Amino acid sequence: MIRAGKRPGPYRPRAEETLDAGKLELGEVFQDAECLLISEVKVLLEAQYESKKEEKNLTDVYTKTLEYVQKFSRYTNRDTIKEVRALLKPTNLEPFECAQLGNLCCSEYEEIKSLVPSIGNKISDDDLDSLLKQMDSLKKYQG
């Protein structure tokens, strides 16, 4: 419900709604949202770049976002991104957790568990360590 005189704007949690990404409490607006790796966002933005450039439709937000994803993208080609997604798919982790694993690229399972506490005991330390090593290997040897 929109009150008179108020314009709809960005999502703001209700006063009684407490958000905590560490507990996967992201708010109702993110309930069914798809979580992308930074590398996936890079692929999408680069695919649009030439047409946006020709149409002179490059906004500051688009340009800055493209610069950001180009700087922080961990995986440089589509095949590697697909392989990372394939590694993450069989886990029983939530999409947000999978995206964090792929974006942070931690080398130690203790580090990822401290940065993404919602992972908790959803995956064994040995399996998580193996997954991180496989992802690191993909990152190192991508073409």
Walk me through this protein's architecture:
By secondary structure, this protein is mainly alpha-helical. The chain has six helices and no strands. The protein has helices at residues 38-54, 60-72, 78-88, 95-104, 109-115, 125-140. Helix 1 (38-54) runs antiparallel to helix 2 (60-72) and helix 3 packs antiparallel against helix 6. The longest helix is centred in the first third of the chain and has 17 residues, at 38-54. It is globular and about 50 Å long.
Overview features:
single chain; 143 residues; mainly alpha; disordered N terminus
Summarize the structure.
With 143 residues, the chain is an all-alpha fold. The chain is 52% helix and 0% strand.
Mean pLDDT: 84
Topology, number of strands: 0
Characterize the largest beta sheet: strand count, sense, and whether it forms a barrel: none
**Structural class determined from secondary elements:** mainly alpha
Oligomer: single chain
Helix segment count? 6
Beta percentage is under 5%
Rg from Cα: 18 Å
Cα separation of the termini: 51 Å
Order of helices and strands: HHHHHH
Helix amount:
40-55%
Uncertain stretches of 5 or more adjacent residues = 1-7
Gross morphology: globular
SSE order and pairing:
Blueprint: H1 38-54, H2 60-72, H3 78-88, H4 95-104, H5 109-115, H6 125-140
Helix pairs in contact: 1-2, 3-6
